[in-house]
UniProtKB/TrEMBL annotation:
GO molecular function, one term: electron transfer activity
PROSITE patterns with a match to the protein in the record: RUBREDOXIN_LIKE
Source species, domain of life: Bacteria
Family note: Belongs to the rubredoxin family.
Provenance organism: Sutterella parvirubra YIT 11816
Name of one Pfam family that matches: Rubredoxin
Keyword annotations: Electron transport, Iron, Metal-binding, Transport
Domain Rubredoxin-like: 30-81
PANTHER family: RUBREDOXIN, RUBREDOXIN-1-RELATED
Lineage, broadest ranks: Bacteria, Pseudomonadati, Pseudomonadota, Betaproteobacteria, Burkholderiales
CDD domains found in the cross-reference section: rubredoxin (cd00730)
GO biological-process terms attached to the record: alkane catabolic process
UniProt entry tagged with the keyword Metal-binding: yes
Name of the featured protein: Rubredoxin
Gene3D superfamilies: 2.20.28.10
Length: 86
């Protein structure tokens, strides 16, 4: 019988931080991001005029209070847009 391994992360905050790092590693300055709730696509070339976000603003530079302009979900509801599907 094998012993149970200790969890690699001791708190949910550590897990969230690791997930955020992984997400950010996949996101380049020109990466289009899609809301997983309503499918709205954030395009850095266009920005988000409704929220005062200038064209050329990468997703990683959006303020923490940014929400999807269509459904109001926060930044963590966005995933890299897959051009082959979309």
């Amino acid at each position: 019988m094998t012993e149970a391994k200790e969890p690699r992360f001791s708190t949910s905050a550590e897990v969230e931080a690791m997930l955020e790092q992984t997400r950010n590693a996949r996101i380049g300055d020109d990466t289009r991001m899609q809301c997983k709730v309503c499918w709205h696509v954030y395009d850095p070339e266009e920005g988000c005029p409704e929220q005062g976000i200038d064209p050329g603003t990468p997703f990683s530079a959006l303020p923490d209070y940014f929400v999807c302009p269509d459904c109001g979900h926060p930044k963590d509801a966005f995933l890299p847009f897959d051009e082959t599907i979309g």
